[in-house]
């Protein structure tokens, strides 16, 4: 059996009882560690679970999945995924490959950022499609998020923005020379996300959002030091110190809001007067 | 401290380690049991947690929350919620009341149907806003879901439909006579949901969807007997036997789909030929 086990969002105690029982009994345990991370190290997980863990990087999962699935028709293999197994990143290709090999699959759900973001105080009902924001470079500034946000905002919906993480990345030089030397991990902050968003709005000029649009920055959702900062996009450009260490996510508000959400989120506002004024003028209309 | 603890989707082993530690230590433990249910009885939870639980019905949570919050500035109170504390139903009002009373609040995330539905094989990124479907009566057939689905479909997005549950409901007669006699619980099935949807489409005639629109019925997501059935809305009208006992949910597909989703979900199709034919004609276009 292949078990896809969700680990939740923050530390070793976020696994479910059901998930932990599977991890303890499985013949082999893999940890998918390239699309998201927990806030604790692998060694903490290993000592808590009482198991050694093989870290599965993108190359392994995408090109060498048969090694992960080896003998899984006879023994139990646990594939651990931060968040929910089918959350922000799906592992449908691994499941399809298992099916082809006649291997049974079960998944153990857990909190995903896509539902965990509800702790910011906005109704999950009113979220539209989710978008991703990658680190811009001089030559590469993918802006497909802009049209998605435009669609969401056209019908009043909030947008969850998932922020890039770079782990096990090689510099162009090391890549060219075939040197397996990896750069230190980088995690996008809300400040970078907000400024990249404003940069694209400036370029496109369609008025999908602007410096005064309301948003919520979220850090370490579900963790002991969970933190939310609410404000305009312009204010959030400077919110990194307030938010603290990774992981960060962001929500851009849609206009379909409820007075209860106003009151709830206001608690996190950088500047309550600004928050109230803009909310009153532009939100809660639908 | 008030702890909002998510219980996950199916049974007593879906609580996280973090959540269980809080439940074991709390002075009082409440279970919110009117917006969703686990697939096991309260007595199973009590014996597994080693704690007695006070079931909090809607009246208690909405009108008597100060009893739940009593002394929570000095002792720990655990308020258990099926799914995620901020998932399909938010408990923002309870948190706001706690803030007013100077009570600190922490929440423990868990799987919600809003992310758990990813196990059906559609990318969670491409879901629009979530809608609810209530049991129609002769005089009451609320159809606000129709316009929401229209909005989602206009931009190619999937729609998660959450199905009504009726627990602790009184008949009109018992209500009128003030008799606290409750009807047996009722849980909407995918079959009822699909036929109510078609009824409203027939009435409105805007062609938002039709008998040949593709959808997925989901039963007991995250549970040992989790089951998905994919087909047209017309086929899903007759899928209740295949899906089995509650809880059910449904997804109406948007047209923005990926070939991998086609292949993944096809496994659940009532009729694979129909599924392939309609998919090829109408989906995967965006």
From TrEMBL, chains A, B:
EC number, as in UniProt: 2.1.1.314
Please give the catalytic activity noted in the UniProt record.
2-[(3S)-amino-3-carboxypropyl]-L-histidyl-[translation elongation factor 2] + 4 S-adenosyl-L-methionine = diphthine methyl ester-[translation elongation factor 2] + 4 S-adenosyl-L-homocysteine + 3 H(+)
Which UniProt key words apply to this protein?
Answer: Methyltransferase, S-adenosyl-L-methionine, Transferase
Xref: Gene3D superfamilies: Cobalt-precorrin-4 Transmethylase, Domain 1 (3.40.1010.10), Methyltransferase, Cobalt-precorrin-4 Transmethylase, Domain 2 (3.30.950.10)
Q: Recall the GO molecular function terms of this protein's record.
A: diphthine methyl ester synthase activity
Q: Which domain of life is it from?
A: Eukaryota
Entry annotated with the keyword DNA-binding: no
Q: What is the main EC category here? A: transferase
Pathway where it operates: Protein modification; peptidyl-diphthamide biosynthesis
Coiled-coil stretches noted in the UniProt entry, renumbered to this chain? none
The cross-references to Pfam families, in alphabetical order and at most eight, read: TP_methylase (PF00590)
**Keyword S-adenosyl-L-methionine in annotation:** yes
Q: Which residues bind S-adenosyl-L-methionine?
A: 9, 84, 87, 112-113, 163, 221, 248
Task: Name all Tetrapyrrole methylase domain ranges.
Answer: 1-236
A Gene Ontology biological process noted in the UniProt record is: protein histidyl modification to diphthamide
For this protein, the record's HAMAP family field holds: Diphthine_synth
Briefly, what is this protein's role?
A: S-adenosyl-L-methionine-dependent methyltransferase that catalyzes four methylations of the modified target histidine residue in translation elongation factor 2 (EF-2), to form an intermediate called diphthine methyl ester. The four successive methylation reactions represent the second step of diphthamide biosynthesis.
For this chain, the family text in UniProt reads: Belongs to the diphthine synthase family.
User: What is this protein called in UniProt?
Assistant: Diphthine methyl ester synthase
Q: What is the lineage of its organism?
A: Eukaryota, Fungi, Dikarya, Ascomycota, Pezizomycotina
């Amino acid at each position: 059996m292949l078990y896809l086990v969700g680990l939740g969002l923050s530390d070793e105690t976020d696994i479910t009882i059901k998930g932990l029982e599977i991890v303890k009994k499985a013949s082999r345990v893999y940890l998918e560690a390239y699309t998201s991370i927990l806030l604790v190290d692998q060694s903490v997980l290993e000592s808590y679970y009482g198991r050694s863990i093989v870290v599965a990087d993108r190359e392994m999962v995408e090109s060498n999945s048969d090694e992960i699935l080896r003998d899984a028709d006879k023994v139990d293999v646990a594939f651990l995924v931060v968040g929910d197994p089918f959350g922000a990143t799906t592992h449908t290709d691994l499941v399809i490959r298992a099916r082809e090999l006649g291997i049974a699959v079960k998944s153990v759900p857990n909190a995903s950022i896509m539902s965990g973001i509800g702790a910011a105080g906005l109704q999950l009902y009113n979220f539209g499609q989710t978008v991703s924001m990658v680190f811009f470079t001089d030559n590469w500034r993918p802006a497909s998020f802009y049209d998605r946000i435009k669609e969401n905002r056209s019908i009043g919906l909030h947008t969850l923005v998932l922020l890039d993480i770079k782990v096990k990345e090689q510099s162009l030089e090391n890549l060219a020379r075939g040197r397996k030397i990896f750069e230190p991990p980088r995690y996008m902050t809300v400040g970078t996300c907000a400024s990249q968003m404003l940069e694209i709005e400036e370029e496109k000029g369609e008025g999908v959002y602007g410096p005064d649009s309301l948003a919520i920055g979220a850090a370490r959702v579900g963790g002991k030091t969970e933190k939310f900062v609410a404000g305009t996009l312009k204010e959030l450009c400077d919110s990194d110190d307030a938010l603290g260490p990774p992981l960060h996510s962001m929500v851009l508000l849609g206009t379909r809001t409820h007075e209860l959400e106003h009151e709830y989120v206001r608690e996190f506002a950088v500047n309550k007067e600004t928050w109230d004024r803009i909310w009153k003028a532009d939100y809660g209309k639908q």
